[in-house]
Amino acid sequence: MNLQWLRHGNCTRTGIKGAGLALAALMISTWTCTGANAWAQIATRIQLSTAQQSASDSPQTVFTAKVADVSGSPVNTGTVSFESAKGSIGSAVVENGAATLTVDSLPPAANSITAVYQGSANYASSSAAVTAQATAAPAVPDFTVTATPSSLTVSPGGFGTTVISITPINGFSEMVTLSCSGNPAPSTCVFSPTTVIPANGAVATSTLQIQTQGAAGKTTLLVHPSEQQRNSSGHVAYAVVLPGILALLGIGALRKRSGWAGLRALGFVALLAASGFGLSACNVRYDYLNKPPAANPGIAAGTYTMTLAAYGNDGTSVTSHTINLTLTVN
């Protein structure tokens, strides 16, 4: 038997009574409601807090929204949306009276976050705001490079020395390779060592020596031209005439001894070879006197700006820095 036995606003409770049972012994009862918000929703309150945490060296911001009814009992249904002036940063389901959202970074200028409880069939919506600082970006390992001193003064043929310091930042501990460019010719950069590793936060150093070259050789002839011509003509005469005279004398002497024909021919060949060697030696000396070695003027006086580069490589990315060095040659 169907009974309509209680009304509440736009809702009616009906029941099915078994035969012979009193009204209080209804076996099944249901509410049938018409219209929106037939039952008044229970008011809620929300409390929002924020905290910082680190995971894998990356700082994160954690928002926790606690949702309860007016009596303080936790709400275990519904969703909380976390909003900033730039829009939503995420949402979380309410479980055991709380909704938690963890973010790696906040939008720029998002210094106020509002937690909005969306409500449910039985609970009304509510909201709360909290001031939050934007999460700082993860610290990137890096290094700085300095030279002490950063200016050197040398004389041609001399050298200057400076100490290169590699200072790690944010735990940088990779190998750093040093090089220089822009050094004037003729000069060289010598690092000792060429690579350094700033381990355990300690400063790593390398000594840079800039070596210069002074003037070498002459730009004038080694012998005065008139003296050179006089000596050259005399040497040529000795180199050609003397072996020829010896060759003729040898041939004349050997003719008187007919039994020595083979020896006479051998002596003639030897004399010709001596003449050839004499001319060759004369030619070398002539070239040396007339074509002296090229002169090397050495490094020119002046002030030069050099570039020192330091490269660090962790296998996936390269970190580089450059500084200027000033070299003055007197």
Automatic annotation (TrEMBL):
Is Transmembrane helix set as a keyword in this record?
yes
Q: Does the keyword Transmembrane helix apply?
A: yes
Pfam families named among the record's database cross-references: Big_3_5 (PF16640)
For this UniProt entry, which segments traverse the membrane? 236-254, 266-286
Question: Where is each Bacterial Ig-like domain found?
Answer: 52-133
Keyword entries, A-Z: Membrane, Transmembrane, Transmembrane helix
InterPro entries membership: Big_3_5, Ig-like_fold
Query: Can you say what this protein is called?
Result: Bacterial Ig-like domain-containing protein
Q: What is the lineage of its organism?
A: Bacteria, Pseudomonadati, Acidobacteriota, Terriglobia, Terriglobales
